[in-house]
Design a protein that fits this description.
single chain; alpha+beta; 3-stranded mixed beta sheet; binds nickel (II) ion
Length: 197
């Protein structure tokens, strides 16, 4: 159980695809505790293993608010088995200190994963809630995909990166998602929410 250094945008492990976990071993359990400790210490709502330099398919989320008890959620070998709808999400990431920009997300996702005891579960998160958006953000980290790869406004994203002394957008990494782009263009304007994941 310890607080780890968070890998920043520009460092290699953020772009590397992560490997499946074969067994939720003691080593993986320690990794899970480290992820939770590091996420809470940095006031994040989610953290994925590559963000602490471990390229394995594990992430943690806690979307509880300050007046609620902690609600740590652990996802090992997650698979997104259903996704639908579209929404705009104003996101940040602990690997991008102080940088926020609007990104495209699905509104509803269904995820299948193992918990910290290696038991399978299925979870559905709907209506573009913080949980629904956070699952997609953390899941992406396991494939080396970052929130800026889903950005809506290239100018805004570039400016946020520059302002915070982060490397520029990697244009070859931008996710091509025409159906999401089209659905988002039809949406009414939404209020902005800022979260670090
Ligand atoms: Ni992140």
């Amino acid at each position: 159980m310890s607080i780890k250094k968070i890998v920043k945008y520009g460092e290699a492990s953020l772009r590397q695809p992560s490997k499946e976990v074969h067994k939720v071993s003691q080593k993986i359990k320690v990794l899970i505790e480290d992820l939770l400790d590091t996420m809470y210490k940095n006031n994040g709502v989610g953290l994925a293993a590559p963000q602490i330099g471990e390229n394995v398919r594990v992430f943690v989320i806690d979307v509880s608010t300050n007046d609620e008890p902690l609600n740590p959620m652990v996802f090992v070998n997650p698979k997104i088995i259903k996704k639908s709808g579209a929404c705009i999400s104003n996101e940040g990431c602990l690997s991008f200190p102080n940088a926020y920009t609007s990104v495209k997300r699905y509104q509803n996702v269904m995820v299948k994963a193992l918990d910290r005891n290696g038991r399978a579960f299925v979870l559905e998160a709907k209506d573009g809630t913080l949980l629904a958006r956070c699952i997609q953000h953390e899941f992406d980290h396991l494939d080396g995909v970052l929130f800026i790869d889903h950005m809506i406004n290239r100018f805004d994203a570039e400016e946020q990166l520059k302002k915070n002394d982060l490397p520029p957008l990697e244009l070859d990494k931008i996710v091509d998602e025409p159906e999401l782009t089209e659905a988002i263009e039809k949406l009414p304007k939404e209020e902005k929410k800022e979260e670090d994941a």
